[in-house]
Amino acid sequence: MDVQPKQTTGKHARWKKMNSRSLFSDLRNDLTAAALEFVGTVVFLMIGLGGIQAAATSSALLAAASNTGGAQSVNVVASIEQLLYISVSMGLALLVAVWLFYRVTGGVFNPAVATALFLIGAIGPVRFILFCLAQIVGAIVASAILLGLLPGPLVVTPSLGPGVNLAQGVFIEMFLTSFLVFAVLMLAAEKHRSTAFAPIGIGLTLFACHLFGVLYTGAGMNAARAFGPAVVSGFNHEQWVYWVGPFLGSLLATGLYAFLKHIKYWELNPDQDVDDFVGILLSRVNTL
């Protein structure tokens, strides 16, 4: 006797379809993407953290020359020029790495960004988990390579600056991460005519956030970026700040993105993403 299965709708239907076969149906591509995400994370952090280490080394050499002591962490810098150098290093590193891997894996390189992409449905749960693992391992490998390549101790682990307490650190990291994640969602995940130039906007956002955050928190904004250097150079009691803050920032940015989609933001300024500018001008003239 044939028995017809009961039809389900809504959330129950989605959960019913969510079985091991559907979850792992694209596992080969997920594994390949995760492997390349690992490579991209290594590229990003080798360039970015290498620049931070160069700034710290320069600061230490300058301090040694003047007998004032050396740099001890990413936040201890000799001048505003050092802060600018660190910010430029990380911003350009992300711009370059995202542009190189944008059409390969999306150039995520950050568990907070991966979380947002998962929440909006841009990536599935399997790829989300694999991406986070790849990013964390990539950060460890990049830090280990830098430790072996460069002289002196590795001093690129983010830490709270003088006078910054743990609560302030969490909220600074939350807001800075939300800006970065929102840039990724609006420039890369949201498709439009300027999406091809998303790496520039994302890199500039990270640069701007570093200008604000380096002195106060080291501008982690990325749990993998904070965890990798700590594995090879030692943990401190502030490590959890760089996990909780970025996670909250990811939720904040995703919530704002969902709100904008809900109100159909593209209807608020409809002429911003079109090609026929002449036609728009003529139509406006005709209505006068």
Please state the average pLDDT score: 86
Q: Which consecutive residue ranges, at least 5 long each, have pLDDT under 50?
A: 1-16, 68-72
Gyration radius over CA: 22 Å
% residues in beta strands = under 5%
Shape: globular
Largest sheet geometry? none
Q: Give the second-level CATH assignment, the architecture.
A: Up-down Bundle
Q: Kindly give the count of domains.
A: 1
Describe the structure.
- With 288 residues, this protein is mainly α.
- The protein has a single domain, classed as Glycerol uptake facilitator protein (Up-down Bundle).
- It is built from eleven helices and no strands.
- It is globular, with a radius of gyration of 22 Å.
- This is Aquaporin-like protein.
What characteristics describe this protein?
mainly alpha; 288 residues; globular; disordered N terminus; Glycerol uptake facilitator protein
Report a brief summary of the structure.
It is a multi-pass membrane protein. The chain is mostly helical and 288 residues long.
